[in-house]
Give the backbone structure.
Amino acid sequence: MATVTHMVPFLLLIALVVAVAAVGAILRARSGRTVRVVPGVEDPELAIGDSGTLVQFSSALCVACPPTARLLAEVAADRPTVAHLEVDIEQRPDLTARFGILRTPTTLLVDGSGRVRGRISGAPRRHELVAELDRLLPAGPISAAAR
Amino acid sequence: MSVNPGEAGIDPRGPRVTAAVTAVVLLASLSLAVAGAPNAAAGVLAAQAIVFGIAATAGIHRHPYGVVFRRLVRPRVSAPARVEDPAGPTFAQLVGLMLAATGVLLHLVGVPLAVPVAAALAFTAAALNAIADLCLGCHLHVLLVRSGLLRRRTSAVDAAP
């Protein structure tokens, strides 16, 4: 039994396990993180709040969507100039495609002009969401230049 | 439990533990294939196909591996924060069945790498479910329901605000 014949399949198996474990670990670690986005084109339809809008893309059969909606509504309620908008991906396939929504819930942090400044895939981690929200979408007419 | 879990919603952690066990079984099939025992590998894959079939027909909450979650994990954790519609995970078992059955059938016909390829695909889906909470079969289920090819089986969970 030549060792060479069995090495390649064995190495492929190891490579598969390592690749799957790595991808899984990365996706798991990134879930719920607030990722900063380079501001792009303005989308006025999403600009509901004066200083920003938390746009949540949801779907039916999405376990994490109702708790995420509650969290975002709560965070928006604490900030008079920030609104929460929930989008059903089945009712708005155009928006879903435009923003490349691959997973629900996906939350976009949209500024007052309608530009996407941040993105959260999966149920948001609250502390990070609040910190990034206050950093990316400073509320009020007096923006804190010191930030 | 006085309420049928299939109607009221299931603990979302159950299918993930089941997926972990499934991934180990599929890894065993892959290892046998790599070690030069293709028929044993096909046998393990066939056994896993039967398990997929039982869960696909009886529902994810009656999955044969569910005993691992109920006996080992559930007693050690608090009640779930939310419940999940079992339709998606149950459909995912059907996808697993189709993958595994195809692998075994192609092997019986003499296709050389049928078992390892099928096992590798199913392993990837099961492992990603266990590690990253990604249910690829559930996504497929949503796509098929949206395209009209499948009827959505609603449960009380869907009606919740």
Observations:
- The radius of gyration of chain B is 16 Å.
- The interface with chain A takes residues 12, 27, 30-31, 33-36, 81-85, 87-88, 116, 120, 123-124, 127-128, 130-134, 138, 141-142, 146, 152, 158, 160-161 of chain B (CB under 8 Å).
- Residues 32 and 41 of chain B are 5 Å apart (CA to CA).
